[in-house]
Specification:
homodimer; 233 residues; alpha/beta; 10-stranded mixed beta sheet; 10 strands; 32% strand
Chain lengths: 233, 233
């Protein structure tokens, strides 16, 4: 089981808060992949539902479910248009997925999560912040960095620390946590992949500077995330 | 199961790093209590050992083991004088325990953890930092705050961000993460307990200021922790 910090933090919050009056029914947005975080909720006795836009990752999650004989109910769906009725879940969360939307779509997605959440229910979402390093890609809008992945353009959104507050109307923020990780020996991309990623249409770096940037990753890598847990009022 | 962020982060690091050559044998320092974190390692197939100074907390952990039919091997022991031979564990960690030692004893404890750790093995430890709030008690040495708990004087140590580095000689730091939690609706102590805690021998606050401090907790509470994962060279 892969223990994502944001999912552990949410579960720990719920275990310590008094939420026994709420039905244990949870939705994860961006739920698929080889190690679906919903499995942790399943283990704790929750009725789980998940949506994901990627058929490939849904296939991986279903293989996990077969292998471990668990039923997580992960279906295809976009968090900007959640395929569930209003107010059916007590708990809604995402982990490392919201950051793949533009800021405008982030607002749409949080509104959708709020719609399917019951009054008194809890939402957990995370935002990457601008003190992360490196920020690569073409910054088409403030904090929105675009890169190429295969055939597609992919965005990652980064926020100022006080910026995500705008998304929490009609929600009481009950927990706010900033995590800044400095990895010294693990760089998530190989040197070769890093160099192949270079494309002068979307970076201000020259090819030489880009190659050197990889060597600096080990020393300067920094990933900052702001996590909010909020209750629907 | 209670998912402590530092334990989840350590397990996640080990799952993503290549440590399959190491025997899955782990020691936790400060391992007892109602929800022993070692249970997570047990679930992942580790041979687990734990030490704790508190008979009461060891009793709680043993009740957990009986109830869940798991064998975690938690015995009485002090992390400043670990009751195990040199280099017998591949993994050693603590979570929210080291902070209960003076800074001098913190150095002794980390040295002991390093002693029982095999070469190439991994250590995970955490330090509370001085940007936490409130810092209560008598500051007898820089960053060492003493309060009374029952019959005993209890210390909590808080560090500057660049201070813990001194403890990591003969160790390669492979992960460093700072977590700053701002709790808005949960204060861990009741108003009554807070007021009863007041004792003018160890705080510079007047009784009135102390009472007011409780009301401010909700708005200003902040707990910052620096976690290091290091490999023994």
């Amino acid at each position: 089981m892969l223990l994502r910090p944001s999912v552990c933090t949410f579960l720990q919050y719920l275990q310590q808060a008094n939420v026994t009056h709420l039905e244990k029914k949870v939705l994860e947005c961006g739920a698929a992949g080889r190690y679906p975080p919903l499995a942790l909720f399943y283990e704790e006795g929750y009725e789980t539902y998940g949506i994901d836009v990627s058929d490939y990752r849904i296939g991986l999650a279903r293989a996990f479910c077969r292998e471990h004989d668990v039923s997580l109910n992960i279906i295809k769906g976009d968090m900007r248009d959640i395929p569930f009725d209003d107010e059916v879940f007590s708990f809604v969360y995402e982990s490392d997925s919201l950051c793949r939307l533009t800021k405008k779509d982030t607002g749409v997605a949080v509104k959708e999560m709020k719609r399917v959440l019951r009054r008194g229910g809890y939402l957990s979402v995370g935002f990457m912040t601008l003190d992360s390093w490196p920020l690569t890609g073409e910054e088409r809008n403030p904090g929105e960095f675009w890169t190429h992945s295969g055939e597609r353009d992919v965005v990652h959104s980064f926020f100022e620390d006080d910026e995500p507050g705008q998304y929490f109307t009609d929600l009481d923020i009950v927990w706010e946590e900033k995590r800044t990780a400095v990895r010294r020996d693990t760089v998530t991309v190989s040197r070769e992949d890093w160099i192949n990623q270079y494309n002068d249409t979307w970076t201000r770096y020259s090819k030489d500077e880009w190659v050197k940037l990889y060597d600096e990753c080990k020393a300067h890598f920094r990933l900052s995330v702001l996590q909010y847990i909020a209750r629907k009022t």
